[in-house]
Amino acid sequence: MRVSSIVMDLSIRFMGLPMPNPLVVSSSGLSASVEGVKSAVEAGAGAVVLKSLFEEDIAAAVERERIGINESHPEVESYLQKMGMILEPEEYLSLVEKSVQLADVPIIASLNCYSANWWSDYARRMEKVGANAIELNVAQLATDPKKEAAQLEDDLVALVELARRVVKIPIAVKIGQNYSALPHLVARLHRAGVDSLTLFNRYYRFDIDIERIGFKPGNSLSTREEFNPLLRWIGIISSPDNLDIAASTGVHGAPEVIKALLAGADAVQLCSILYRKGLNEIAAIKEGLETWMEEHDYSTISDFQGLFSFKKNAAYYQRLQYVKSINLNRSS
Ligand SMILES: Cc1cc2nc3c(=O)[nH]c(=O)nc-3n(C[C@H](O)[C@H](O)[C@H](O)COP(=O)(O)O)c2cc1C
Q1: Quick one: which of 75, 138, 280, 283 has the most CB atoms within 10 Å?
Q2: Which among 77, 181, 179 has a CA at the least distance from the CA of 138?
């Protein structure tokens, strides 16, 4: 390794928030408890997105209050369990509050929402207990042939407009990959007041067990091969005009972090790799990033961020087809 006198500065501003480095622990079981958040911060995370509070959890709590049934009633409890209760909304607010108190990096609360009903009040309450920002985890799945793509996009924009009306803190929106005209949608989300986009969520996957002939869970953790399609979208979406991008899915090491930043991401989110290798991997990735910066004479993230964005390399990004067929028999 080359010895250099350059002092590396990994600090960034993300959604206007100062961060010591661009490595964010994704919303997941890793950030579902105060202990988890503490460990992530101690391991050197630049920010932490808390596990999502799911809209159905809020709906269940509201329903319980409405029907006035005691929490310990076994039938209600089993009903709530079936609805996928993970954290009680009140418990969640306490997680936000305690995490903010213990952490010296941004704590981003995460709110799953798909209708405009229950969640907005909780967005307000998350802000009140000190969340530095909110990530809206919006999962849209097109299953209805009568519903046009434009309607799904309108629904998403309406959610963001509502969130923007109820909170003043920065808002990130985390979406899936399946939008046909992503730049247009992003421009609308930006106008609606989004500060950052998390591209992309990797939703729960199911599989089919062909021996037992039934459903089974698919791979819950990503592989690094899943990162590459993300690179193109980060480069296309990345824009200088105060809309930040966090790369998520398949970021498994320093090479993906560097590529995401070169394509124009402002931050990267880590999840599967931390489940596989533990939170110490944050330090290893940081070290890999610093070493690469040193080797290439970069001392700050902004020295190289976006060098390979769409704006600067449109022709390369627009190349979609293999011009010549690959010769599989090259060695023969
Ligand atoms: C066990 C597990 C739980 C997750 N829970 C959430 C969640 O509550 N909210 C959310 O927005 N994403 C959730 N995710 C998705 C991750 O935040 C992340 O976007 C996804 O795993 C892709 O990143 P990766 O390739 O680094 O794993 C979860 C992922 C896993 C594996």
Answers
A1: 138
A2: 179
Distance 254 CA to ligand 1 centre (A): 19
Residue 170 CA to ligand 1 center (angstroms) comes to: 21
> What letter would DSSP give residue 180?
T
| pLDDT reported for residue 316 | 86
Predicted pLDDT of residue 9: 97
Taking the C-alpha atoms of residue 16 and residue 44, their distance in angstroms, rounded to an integer, is 20
What lies within 8 Å, CB to CB, of 251 at 6+ separation is 227, 257, 260, 268, 269, 270, 273
Tokens 């399946």 sit on residue: 178
The minimum-distance atom of ligand 1 relative to the CA of 271 is 26
Total Cβ atoms within 10 A of residue 105: 22
For the chain, list the strands marked E by DSSP: 12-14, 17-19, 23-25, 47-53, 107-112, 133-137, 171-175, 196-199, 206-209, 214-217, 244-247, 267-270
Report the SS3 class of residue 59: helix
**Residue nearest atom 12 in ligand 1 by C-alpha distance:** 27
| pLDDT at residue 59 in the model | 64
Please report the atom of ligand 1 found closest to the CA of residue 201: 19
The parts of the chain modelled with pLDDT lower than 70 are 1-6, 56-87, 116-117, 239-240, 323-332
Can you tell me the distance from the alpha carbon of 244 to that of 268, in angstroms, rounded to the nearest whole number? 11
C-alpha of residue 312 to centroid of ligand 1, in Å: 31
Report the distance separating Cα 169 and Cα 190, nearest Å: 15
pLDDT at 165: 96
Q: Are 119 and 159 in contact (CB under 8 A)?
A: no
From 205, 200, 306, select the one nearest 251 (Cα to Cα): 200
pTM: 0.90
In this prediction, residue 19 carries a pLDDT of 98
In the three-class reduction of DSSP (H, G, I as helix; E, B as strand; rest coil), residue 225 is classed as: helix
Cβ neighbors of 222 (< 8 A, separation 6 or more) are 202, 249, 250, 252, 271, 272
